[in-house]
Structures are given as C-alpha cells and as structure tokens.
Amino acid sequence: MNARTKQLYQELVLDHNRNPRNYRSMEVHSHHAHGHNPLCGDRLELFLKVDADGLVADVSFIGDGCAISKASASMMTAAVKGKTVADAETLFQEFHAMSMGTLDPESAPNHLGKLAVFAGVRDLPARVKCATLAWHTLDAALHGHEQTSTE
Ligand code: ZN
C-alpha cells in the first residue's frame, strides 16, 4: 500500500467503525444469515430485502467485532444497496479475489470503487477473514444459508 492508500484506508475504517452505515436489524426481510469469524471473534447478522425485480432494496447488519470487520460490513451494505443480486455477487467475487491477492484493483478491471482500499489486507493474513466476513455472510444469505463461518 502506498502512503495515500494507507491513509484513505485508515480514514474509511475509522469512519465506518465509528459511524457504521445500515447498522440495525430488519424485522421484515427476504434473506438473512449469521456470520462468525472464530479467529478474531467477529460476529454479525445480516438482513436483506430483495424485491421482485432482483434488486437489493434494503440491507442492514448488527453484530460485534473488530474495527475492520465492522467497517467492512458497513461499506459492504453501502456498496450493494440498490444493486441487483447479480451485481452484488460480482462484487463479492471481486472483493474475495482482491483479499486473496488474485485481483489487483489498481491494474485489473473491477467494480470495487472505494472498497479497493481493502486491497492491503492481502498482506495481513490474520485480517483477511475480518475484512471478508461480511461478504461471505452476504453470499450465504443470498444462497439461503443461515450460518457461515470463516473457518
Ligand atoms: Zn476481526
């Protein structure tokens, strides 16, 4: 990570951790899943409302975890809200590939936008699971699985 990316990453993680977007439970939802990262102790519960056109009309989460897991969940909800389920799945694939180091957002075409600030986690193996937990939980919820674990 260069200095500017690192600074942007720190600012975004701080901001989204302090003031997480879409942080609430949702009584009426179409999809729902629990995610758990035993390595760090991060837990989150994700709610989705997918409408008849396949659009993610609403998405929210609650949970308890480290700053990275919370910021990543907050940014994930902001990124997929209003997108189609297919576009949300594409983002999941890209985010996952980026965190594994197989997609470099600086050189490969992608839809990650601000989410690209998480590219640096590929160098922090213990943090990869914190950053990807929300995305794995999203994928689980969209496929009708109630539980997912990073282990
Ligand atoms: Zn964590």
Describe the structure.
The protein contains 4 helices and 4 strands. With 151 residues, the chain is an alpha+beta fold. It has a single domain (3-145), classed as Sufe protein. Chain: A (Alpha-Beta Complex). A 4-stranded mixed sheet has the order 3-2-1-4, covered by helices on one side. A hairpin with a 4-residue loop joins strand 1 and strand 2. The model has no long low-confidence stretch (mean pLDDT 94). The structure holds zinc ion.
Pick out its properties.
single chain; alpha+beta; Sufe protein. Chain: A; 151 residues; 4 strands; binds zinc ion
Percentage of residues assigned to helices: 40-55%
Q: Radius of gyration over alpha carbons?
A: 14 Å
Attached small molecules: zinc ion
Sheet with most strands: 4 strands, mixed
| Helix/sheet category | alpha+beta
Kindly provide the name of the CATH class.
Alpha Beta
How many helical stretches? 4
% residues in beta strands: 15-25%
DSSP E strands, number: 4
CATH topology call: Sufe protein. Chain: A
The name of the CATH architecture is Alpha-Beta Complex
Q: What is the total domain count? A: 1
User: How far is the N terminus from the C terminus?
Assistant: 27 Å
